[in-house]
Amino acid sequence: MSYFRITILKGFEFRKKDTLIHKLDPRAKAVYVIVMSIIVLMFTTPIPSLIILLSSFIIVVLAKTVKEWISTMKGIILLSVFIFVVNYLIAPVDKLNYAVSMTLRLITLTSIFSIFFLTTSPEDFSLALLKLGMPYEYTLIFTMALRFIPTLARDLQMIVDAQRSRGLELERGGAIQRIKKFLPILIPLIIYEIKRSFMVAEALEARAFGAVESRTYFYEIKMSSLDWIFSISLVILLILVIFSYITGTLPGWLFWKIPA
Amino acid sequence: MRLAIEVEDLHFYYVKGEYVLRGINFEIKEGESVVIMGSNGAGKTTLIKHFNGLLKPIKGHVRVFGKDTRNHTVAELSRLVGIVFQNPDHQLFAETVEKEIRFALENFNFPSNEIDKRVDKILRYFGLERYKSASPFNLSEGEKKRLAIASVLVYEPDIVVLDEPTIGQDAIQRKRIINVLKELIKSGKTVVAVTHDVEFAVELFERAIVLSRGLLVADGSVKEVLTNQKVLEVANLLPSQVTKCAWLLEDFGIPRDIVSIEELKEHIYKVLRG
Fold first, then answer.
1. B108–A158 C-beta distance less than 8 A
2. In whole angstroms, what is the distance from residue B77 CA to residue B64 CA?
């Protein structure tokens, strides 16, 4: 029966923790995500992905988000299996090596991105977007969308509960009947959320949203010297890897393939 | 008399380890009228969601007329236990008021001539007959609330459970809801309500159950529970006006456990007559 309890959106709920990783500037973390993604995508052998995956796990441990990380990774199990099977079938040679590498790629990229989202509050993220030149109205849309995901999940749960209490059986009937049965859930949800968005808009206007052209911010983000060191060393690492890749001076074991 | 609801050592959490209900025990007999009170977050709504199996106990048992909720679907249990949730906006969806009321009857496979009969009867009973073909979304808040209650009462469940039925209602709408529930209780239905409204509780109900942080802290007659200062404090409630008045007049020999205005009047008369 747990099918009807909406827990899938739990992962989006950011929780603030006092760790070094949480304190890093979101831009520095973005550099990490970009650099590591490029390196992962450069190789079609498993070792480089594996190294980055392990290093990302160390960061996860440092950020004390192992539990959240595991639930994120659980979410891609099905997709991983799918990627593995498809790549195994379409690869012309070195089937096993290719399938394993591609699956590891997905897992590693997910891990890297999850570090960013598990340790960066939506507010910090939109502040970073602002610093990169995005207009405030758009970053606010992003922040609010994230902010309202748990609210939406709660509303949905209450509507499902109310309609099931009036005898709605979502688990019964054929395909078409089942789709029809979602109407008593979708209609109140849509109407309620439209109502809610008007309320939010009014609350924003009541607090003078958009009253002045240029606004100031209560919280500011700043690149500390640690952020700079972190970012610059990552960029140097990337340049080194690309340079040695082109000149062919990377150690051979990085290109080790799983024997067929 | 049959047992309507049995709650035995009920434990429940949403997030593993964070218990919302921590071992609740009580029984409700058929025909009883019970209010469940407690501060916000005490676990009241979580508790009533167990009555029709929307939530299943993590530990312990909930039985409805002897049926363990674990072994029955929500639809089967809802036929016996009608729950009216707090916010009508969470359930109104149909194009017309009539269709909204038909919804539960159709889900429970009532014959169509029976459906028509019941719809007309309940609309008249709730004073909603002129809105029969109006959209539920055009009704006033009070009418929406009555419609939500009507849409559950129409299939005549043996047990009626209401979550905060009087919240956000003006005096007239409130009186209307109270009258409907009064009739319901008189007719022998088992009625359970979750509420913060002490005046509403003392006016209608026989028995009060008070929850605090997932534990049952008081269970007894309304007169006994809702005049107990300690219990009221734990539940973040104020005494009813009648009770407060009795407390203020304590020095004149008026007892503290008074909830009905008639009783208070008698005692005051006694004092005045000397």
1. no
2. 8
The verdict on A191 and A232 lying in the same domain is: no
Number of structural domains (chain A) is: 2
> In chain B, which residues have pLDDT < 50?
none
Q: Is B251 helix (H, G, I), strand (E, B) or coil?
A: helix
| Fold that domain B3-238 belongs to in CATH | Rossmann fold (3.40.50)
**Mutant choice from B54, B70, B71 vs A, greatest count of A C-beta within 10 A:** B54
- The percent of residues above 70 in pLDDT, for chain A, comes to 95
What does the pLDDT average to over A9-15? 57
Each residue of B65-112: pLDDT tens digit? 999 999 999 999 999 999 999 999 999 999 999 999 999 999 999 999
What is the number of other CB atoms lying within 10 angstroms of the CB of residue A29?
A: 25
Chain A closest CA to B104's CA: distance in Å? Answer: 5
ipTM at complex level: 0.91
Residues A173 and A79 in one domain: no
* Residue A97 pLDDT: 92
A176: in domain = yes
